[in-house]
Amino acid sequence: MPGRFRSALLLAAMLVAVAPSGAGWAQDFTVNALGDVRLVRPSSQRSWMDGGLGKLRFNGGSDQGPDIHLGQLLADARLKLGPDVLAFASVRYEPKQKTAIDILEAYGRYQPISTPSTLWSIKLGAFFPPISLENEGVGWTSPWTLTPSAINSWVGDELRTIGGESTLEWRYGTGAFGITGAVFGKNDPTGALLADRGWTFGDRPTGLFDRLRIPDVVLRAQRRRAPGWMSEFREIDNTPGFYGGLSWRENDIGRLTLLHYDNGADPAARRYGQFAWRTEFNSAGIETYLGDFVVLSQGMVGETEINPSQASRSITHFQSAYLLAGRYFGNWNAALRLDVFATQERSGPNNDYTEHGHALTLAVTWGPVRWFKLSGEVLRIDSSRVQRSRELGLPQRSVETQLQLNARFVY
Question: Can you give the pLDDT of all 411 residues of the chain as single tens digits?
């Protein structure tokens, strides 16, 4: 059994084992779990998860009719080690990941008892950077849609803070200002998939010990044999990355978040058979209310660079934004989201990975009881990518539609 897999299982077993060890421990140990089964009618495009250029999680084949899938089994475990110390782990089973059980997040948090005017905390471990306004449920899921936006699909695929993060919040009568800073390592490959395949949509964040499929057309262009994979969470150049962010919350208005991210990678470095990608971006998000509607919007602009030699230097500029409007109706909620996305990358006459597109998502969820939710989602993506015609002989433009009916069990 691989050592990393043993570590994942050991952590999960330790968290579960302490729960029944006594009344005092049991009161300080909580678990939230989620499992889902879904009926999926995928698009006709071959999924990026299987080496294609399709932008959806599930593999193409709409002519074959709907398929039943086990989406994933998730558990978030929290253990209070004292009034100001918390240990947290998010563990997942998913059929296509490298190991049967993987970890999405695992960290410790120190948060002294807050005062009326300030709140301070520090986290150490592996966790998602504070970018998403959508994914705030168990296992980094969203209460609004089954599939996150292009921005947060990419965050789940390629980003993880493996290091330390500190947040300081100043409170006043009707809101608060906050500042966040982090230093991290083991995220040097970030940006590679965004350059090689472009933006995608999926609700399967990468586990800490998982690997992701490289598009077959990219391997063929590099004269490498398919299939091929890459590990996202690697330290290649021994140089840390960082991010810093600001936030503002006003109780009757909503919240605003700003973040600058730089993984600090040396674009000429290579290790473990992988290159480091220097990735920087700026992200902004807002949550507000219009009558009975919740409105979420985020935007991201950045670039990723690889420079193993002057002859093979490549810079990919990327942009994406979304607008989501959602509303609760008793036991129901509904959401409509519009995404726009683009990349620009030309590293030679035969390497043009430029793309642009938009997507529309409509999702409706019914939750008659606390432990059960039934969701339906329609996701339509209209994109144009030069790579499709240049390397596959297909039309540059592709329209993909995915329908899902999801039964979710929550504990």
Answer: 444 444 444 444 344 434 444 444 555 899 999 999 999 999 888 999 999 999 999 987 545 568 898 889 999 999 999 889 999 999 999 988 999 899 999 999 999 988 889 999 999 999 999 999 999 999 999 999 999 999 999 999 999 999 999 999 999 999 999 999 999 999 999 999 999 999 999 999 999 999 999 999 889 888 899 899 999 999 999 999 999 999 999 999 999 999 999 999 999 999 988 999 999 999 999 999 999 999 999 999 999 999 887 777 889 999 999 999 999 999 999 999 999 999 998 766 566 789 999 999 999 999 999 999 999 999 999 999 988 887 778 899 999 999 999 999 999
Beta strands in 94-157 (DSSP E): 101-110, 118-127
Q: Which of 337, 360, 384, 403 is nearest to 44 (CA)?
A: 403
Q: Residue 297: left (phi > 0), alpha (psi -120 to 50), or beta?
A: beta
Residues 50/42, Cβ–Cβ less than 8 Å: no
10 CB contacts (<8 Å, ≥6 apart)? Answer: none
DSSP percent split of the chain into helix, strand, coil, nearest 5: 15, 55, 30
Contact between 258 and 246 under an 8 Å Cβ cutoff? The reply is yes
Kindly report the CA angle at 190 between 186 and 193, in degrees rounded to 5?
Answer: 140
